[in-house]
Amino acid sequence: MKNILVIAETFQGKIRKTSLPAVTFAAELAGKVGGEFSIALFGSGVAGLAGELTGFGAKNVYVVDAPGFANYLGGPWAKAVVALAQQAGATAVAAVSDTFSRDLLPRVAARMGAGMVSETTAIVGDGAGVKFQRPMWAGNVLGTVEVRTPTAVFGVRGTDFDPPKATGGASAVQNASIAFADDGKATYVKFEPTVSARPDLAEAAVVISGGRGLKDAAGFALLNPLADMLKAAIGATRAVVDAGICPNDLQVGQTGRVVAPQLYFAVGLSGAIQHVAGMKNSKVIVAINKDEEAPIFSVADYGLVGDAFKILPELTDAIRKHKGL
Question: Do domains 3-175 and 206-323 have the same CATH topology?
Answer without folding.
Answer: yes
